[in-house]
Amino acid sequence: MSQKINNGDACGLPSRQPEVSPFSKKFSTGELPVEPNRYHYVWAKFCPWATPAAIMIDYTGLNRVISKFATYPLRHSGIDDDWFFGRDAADEDPVLHTTRLSENYKKAVPNFSARPTVPALIDLTTGGVVNDSSRDIMFELGGQWKAFFSEKVPDVYPDDLKDEIDSMNTRIITDITSVPGKISDADSQTEYEILFNQYFDRLEKLDQRLADRRFLMGDHITLPDFWLVVSLIRFDVVFYFKSKLNKKRLDDFPNLWRYAKACYQIPAFKQNSDFMAIKQHFFQVSDDPVTSIDRVIPGGPDLRRWEE
After folding, report:
1. What are the structural domains, with CATH classification, of the chain?
2. Which alpha helices (H) appear in the chain, and where do they start and end?
3. 155 and 215 in contact (C-beta within 8 Å)?
4. CB–CB of 200/247 below 8 Å?
5. Of the residues 42, 97, 292, 295, which has the maximum number of CB atoms within 10 A of its CB?
6. How does pLDDT run across 75-111, given as a tens digit for each residue?
């Protein structure tokens, strides 16, 4: 996912796909049929790119018609170019019955030799990956699968707010979600400072926006909320330290902190937020023996405050 490979730590800015990719099929173009119980979503509990759709699937009720399963959060010892489905090499995804994600890429493209990435949407009729773009999957599920949303849930991608939602998504992904991955690739003080300021300038604006709003678009959750909350949950836990995004902590933004805690109490958000998996991936990275302080999992911050 990251354009620079860092000891198996591969949850950063997704690399650009070629214009024609076998993993970019969409429902909106007719390439994929909207058919319940045909698709399976592979994600990772640590990943800020894969987690938004996992939350949305549960929140909207799409989990009744689209199954999902998370990869093991650590790289297996000596293997930094694949995602396994469990601690042991023989552990399987219970739906796909494969042990590593590359098997499902190869079911779509037999000569596939690149690094498999999460998220990955898989067509169960073939077992092959059909889309691995986090943005595409969010937009496609949010826009093309409304007929299968729970009747109790307001539309997360309403037509009358589509342009505004698309714009807000872009701002969050550009200025928040992608910045930690870009910082890991920065090779100068100037580049780091530009990204640092970009990140905190956007947080300040979002904090102001939420001063008189319950959610980003108003009174109910829409697509940008999934993107933002996922990154906020990882801010103090990982990015404050690892990415040197340390100008302020999340609770220094009163409206963002209130908003993030309120969203976290919603079952779909809480049950897809695994703080230990997040720490394991970003700090420990792999299940090789820990022999240096940079791979030690931090004891803090105190996560009990998310329940207050």
Report:
1. 162-274 (1.20.1050.10)
2. 51-60, 102-108, 134-144, 162-172, 179-185, 189-209, 223-234, 240-242, 254-264, 267-270, 275-279
3. no
4. yes
5. 42
6. 999 999 999 999 999 999 999 999 999 999 999 999 9
